[in-house]
Write a structure and sequence with these properties.
The chain has about 240 residues and is of the alpha+beta class. Helices cover about 55% and strands about 20% of the residues. Helix 4 runs parallel beside helix 9.
Length: about 240
C-alpha cells in the first residue's frame, strides 16, 4: 500500500474539486494528474481513457488495491477488493473514436462518450432519466437508412443496442463492474465502479483528518497553517504524538 500523499498536495486537489458535480470533479482530478493540460482536451478524452488516468491517480496515492462495500438485497454488507493494476492491463483501444454496425439497410456510427457527453446527459437526466439517455444517444449516434440520414430513435432498437455493445467492447474500462457473491443468500451483487467517487471519498476523508491535525497543532504551538503544511508528514505526526 502506498503512503498517504502529503497533506499540502491533497489540499490542492481537494480545493480544486470541492463543490463540483461528479463529472466536473473528475476533470479536476485529471488536471491534477496532468498539470498544464488543456481542460477542453481532458474533457474530450474517451471515458475509458479518462478513468484509466483516474485509476493511475488513485494507485499513485493509495495503492493498487481498492477496497469497497456492497449491500446485498438481504441486507448483508459485502467487502469487495479490486486490483487496479490488473484493470490497467485490460486490452482496450481508447483512441478508436467510432464503431459502425449495419443491418437491413440501416447503418449506425457510434462514438465513444467523453466527459462533455456525460455532463450533458446528467443535466438532462436531472429533469427526466429517459431524457438524459436520449440526449446521450443523440450525441453519440449517427444513423442512416438507405444512405438517408435519420435520427437515432428512428433506427431499430436492436441495432442501437448492438452499436452500444460494440462501443463497450472497444473500450472496456469505460464501464467496470464490481461483483461479489453473498454468503448469506448466495446471490451475486454487482455495481459499476465509479473510480472518481472512490478517489474523492479518500481525498475528502484524508483532508478533513489532516485539517483536524493542523488545528490541533495550531492551538498547541501557535504555528500558522503554512508552517505546519511545510513539514513533512512524519514530523507532523511526531508533534501530534507529543500532544498525546
Amino acid at each position: 500500500m502506498s503512503e498517504t500523499p502529503p497533506l499540502a498536495l491533497l489540499l490542492d486537489i481537494w480545493e480544486a474539486a470541492c463543490g463540483l458535480p461528479p463529472v466536473q470533479r473528475d476533470l479536476a482530478f485529471l488536471a491534477a494528474r496532468r498539470p498544464g493540460s488543456d481542460r477542453a482536451e481532458l474533457a474530450g478524452l474517451p471515458i475509458g481513457r479518462r478513468d484509466a488516468l483516474l485509476i493511475e491517480l488513485y494507485q499513485a496515492h493509495y495503492g493498487a488495491a481498492l477496497e469497497g462495500l456492497l449491500t446485498c438485497g438481504c441486507g448483508e454488507l459485502l467487502e469487495v477488493s479490486i486490483d487496479l493494476a490488473a484493470l490497467l492491463e485490460t486490452p482496450h483501444t481508447p483512441d478508436a473514436a467510432w464503431v459502425s454496425v449495419a443491418a437491413d439497410g440501416y447503418r449506425i456510427d457510434a462514438r465513444l462518450p467523453d466527459t462533455t457527453d456525460l455532463a450533458a446527459a446528467a443535466t438532462a437526466g436531472r429533469i427526466d432519466a429517459d431524457r438524459g439517455r436520449a440526449v446521450l444517444l443523440q450525441r453519440l449516434l449517427r444513423a442512416w437508412h438507405q444512405d438517408t440520414p435519420i435520427s437515432g430513435d428512428e433506427a431499430p432498437d436492436g441495432l442501437v443496442q448492438q452499436a452500444l455493445a460494440a462501443l463497450a467492447e472497444s473500450d472496456p474500462l469505460a464501464e467496470v463492474t464490481m461483483a461479489v457473491g453473498c454468503p448469506n443468500c448466495a446471490s451475486v451483487v454487482s455495481a459499476r465502479l465509479d473510480i472518481g467517487s472512490h478517489l474523492w471519498a479518500r481525498i475528502d476523508a484524508d483532508v478533513h483528518q489532516g485539517l483536524r491535525e493542523v488545528a490541533a497543532l495550531t492551538r498547541a504551538f501557535h504555528w500558522g497553517e503554512a508552517e505546519i503544511l511545510a513539514m513533512n508528514d512524519r514530523r507532523r505526526r511526531a508533534y501530534l504524538e507529543l500532544l498525546g
